[in-house]
User: Which sequence fits this backbone?
């Protein structure tokens, strides 16, 4: 009975955590601060715990500034620019940093600090001048970056990275010890219900289902697969310039080959400088998962296999999503999707609609691996000890006290 009670309570706690307004948070510092005493990785942090963390970082010799985005999610940190680097290069290049993937309402923690003799002041060049006492500066990046246009979002994030970099550089120039905490107000995947103030998760069907931005979208005639990109792919031959592929006006039919159960080919015709080009996406199914093995590039009756730079696949019934860029290439040809890219073959729904994307982040974190290693050592020691105890044998013969005693004759 107690086992089922624990299971039910665990499910309820997990549900309450999943519906909270949690945002990723990262902290960087310069000088001699208490940031080094914080754990390098902590999956979840509540509002009260985050408030205590801010309290621990502050002292009379340390300037603490908090920068807030209107909307922030983990995808913003994993998104990369055309140069292959993170949009937040300040955090990518910072050696002394701490990352917290899930912090519950960090803005509320600031409000709680303001009731504990702290002055939360709007950040500017004179925030710390001619001031004393417990001060935490707040820089509010109040521009809404949640936009359906991928380019504007990336541009805004890059601009905000420059603003945060300027704040951090100016503070480190003026003061010896500085801690900058970057977080958000709202997770864009969580919104309030119209009927109540309770938060609920937004299903991540993503781009192609909303019908707002369908620049590059392929749905095969039988509705078995769905391929989407926020922009047309570009083609580079022999390290030449990137040439955008344009849809062919003469033949817009989608090619489909589903003659084999474990293989699915979906293709479409493009035009490059007046020349016909066909791209065929080759999907393979392996037991309970699928993978986009390659893209067949056909031009002038010659077919070339373009392989992805990173594995593209997911479990059956889930889609694959990447913030981009996604690159397919061989020795001389490079096909690149610069923006958001999402694919799913063997759709399970009747209408052409993406299922939830499979999580691409690594499951095994360093603390998990360390725990498994220590557990393996402990199991080995316990197993060895039990084996040694079981090998102990007791005597099976004893002297009879009523029998004749042993007599030993000693000759002189």
Assistant:
């Amino acid at each position: 009975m107690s086992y089922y009670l624990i299971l039910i309570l665990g499910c309820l706690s997990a549900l309450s955590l999943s519906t909270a307004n949690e945002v990723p948070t990262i902290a960087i510092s310069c000088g001699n601060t208490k940031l080094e005493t914080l754990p390098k990785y902590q999956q979840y942090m509540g509002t009260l715990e985050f408030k205590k963390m801010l309290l621990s970082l502050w002292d009379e010799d340390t300037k603490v500034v908090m920068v807030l985005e209107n909307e922030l999610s983990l995808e913003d940190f994993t998104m990369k620019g055309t140069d292959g680097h993170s949009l937040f290069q300040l955090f990518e290049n910072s050696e002394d940093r701490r990352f917290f993937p899930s912090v519950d309402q960090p803005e509320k923690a600031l409000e709680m600090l303001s009731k504990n003799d702290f002055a939360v002041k709007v950040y500017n060049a004179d925030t710390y001048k001619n001031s004393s006492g417990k001060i935490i500066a707040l820089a509010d990046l109040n521009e809404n970056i949640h936009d359906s246009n991928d380019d504007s979002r990336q541009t805004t994030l890059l601009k905000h990275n420059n603003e945060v970099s300027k704040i951090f550089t100016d503070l480190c120039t003026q003061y010896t010890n500085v801690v900058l905490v970057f977080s958000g107000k709202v997770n864009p995947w969580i919104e309030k219900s119209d009927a109540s103030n309770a938060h609920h998760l937004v299903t991540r069907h993503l781009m192609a289902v909303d019908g707002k931005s369908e620049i590059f979208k392929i749905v095969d005639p039988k509705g078995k697969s769905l391929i989407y990109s926020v922009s047309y792919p570009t083609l580079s031959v022999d390290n030449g310039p990137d040439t955008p592929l344009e849809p062919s006006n003469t033949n817009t039919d989608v090619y489909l080959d589903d003659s084999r159960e474990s293989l699915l080919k979906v293709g479409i015709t493009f035009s490059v400088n007046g020349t016909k080009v066909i791209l065929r996406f080759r999907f393979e199914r392996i037991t309970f998962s699928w993978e986009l093995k390659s893209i067949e590039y056909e031009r002038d009756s010659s077919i070339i296999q373009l392989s992805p730079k990173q594995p593209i696949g997911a479990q059956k019934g889930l889609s694959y999503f990447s913030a981009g860029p996604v690159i397919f290439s061989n020795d001389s040809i490079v096909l690149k999707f610069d923006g958001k890219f999402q694919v799913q073959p063997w759709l399970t729904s009747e209408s052409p609609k993406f299922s939830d994307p499979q999580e691409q982040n690594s499951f095994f974190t360093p603390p998990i691996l360390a725990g498994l290693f220590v557990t393996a050592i402990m199991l080995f020691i316990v197993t060895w000890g039990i084996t040694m105890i079981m090998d102990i044998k007791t005597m099976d013969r004893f002297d009879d006290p009523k029998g004749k005693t042993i007599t030993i004759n000693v000759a002189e």
Observations:
- The chain has a mean pLDDT of 77.
- The CA atoms of residues 41 and 366 lie 9 Å apart.
- The longest helix spans residues 150-174.
- The helical segments are 2-18, 47-57, 74-78, 89-93, 106-114, 150-174, 366-390.
